[in-house]
Specification:
Number of strands: 3
Strand content: 5-15%
Helix content: 40-55%
Number of helices: 10
Largest sheet: 3 strands, mixed
Number of domains: 2
Shape: globular
Low-confidence stretches: none
C-alpha cells in the first residue's frame, strides 16, 4: 500500500499546486507556504502508523447541505468501541455502531502523516496530486508550522482538561449546552 511519504515524493509540485488552486481557491495566496511545507515533508522520516488516510464525503449535518470531501483517518476501531458510544442515542447506535471510526488527522505530527497508508478506494477515486493537496490542506489547517499546530493541539487539550475538572455547578454556570448552541445557530440561519 502507498504511504503519504511515497505519494509526496512521487508527485510534482506543479501538479499539487494546480490541485490546491482548484480544490481550495481561497488558498491561492498561500501556495508558497504549501510549497515550503511540502519541501519540509520531503525531508522528514516517516513514522509507521496503523492509521490509514481516506478522502470521503463528510456526513451532512443538514439535508440541504452541499456534499464536501474530508480527509479522515481509520485504524480499525469501530464506533461501538469508543467510550462515548454509550452516550449516543439508540438510532445512532443502531445505524453507526459497526462503522469504522472516522478520526480527524489535523493534529497528528507530520512524520506520522507521512507513514500512514492511503486507502485504495481513495487512490482509485482521486489523482495523486489531489490526494496530496487534500492532505496538505488538512495538515496545515491549524498553521503552516508544525510547532504551531502542536501548540494549538496542546491548548485544546488543556481546555478540555479544564472543563473536565469543573464541578457540575461550574459547568451549569459557565457552559452553554450543545442543544442550546445548535438551536441558536439554526435560528440565526433562519433570520
Amino acid at each position: 500500500m502507498t504511504t503519504l511519504a511515497e505519494l509526496t515524493s512521487a508527485t510534482r509540485w506543479t501538479e499539487i499546486k494546480a490541485a490546491l488552486a482548484w480544490l481550495y481557491p481561497d488558498e491561492r495566496p498561500r501556495l508558497d507556504e504549501y510549497r515550503r511545507v511540502l519541501r519540509e515533508l520531503r525531508t522528514l522520516r516517516p513514522e509507521a502508523s496503523s492509521m490509514r488516510i481516506a478522502i470521503e464525503c463528510a456526513p451532512r449535518l443538514e439535508p440541504d447541505e452541499e456534499p464536501a470531501l474530508e480527509v479522515i483517518g481509520r485504524n480499525g476501531a469501530c464506533n461501538r468501541d469508543l467510550e462515548e458510544f454509550a452516550h449516543w442515542d439508540e438510532r445512532a447506535r443502531a445505524e453507526h455502531g459497526a462503522e469504522q471510526t472516522r478520526w480527524s488527522l489535523s493534529f497528528h505530527p507530520w512524520h506520522a502523516w507521512l507513514g500512514m497508508t492511503i486507502e485504495p478506494a481513495t487512490l482509485d477515486a482521486h489523482s495523486p496530486a489531489h490526494v496530496v493537496a487534500h492532505c496538505l490542506y488538512d495538515m496545515t489547517f491549524h498553521g503552516f508550522c508544525e510547532a504551531s499546530v502542536q501548540d494549538t493541539h496542546q491548548e485544546l487539550l488543556r481546555r478540555v482538561a479544564e472543563v473536565d475538572a469543573m464541578s457540575e455547578e461550574e459547568k451549569a454556570e459557565k457552559l452553554i449546552p450543545f442543544e442550546q448552541v445548535m438551536a441558536e445557530l439554526r435560528k440565526g440561519m433562519e433570520d
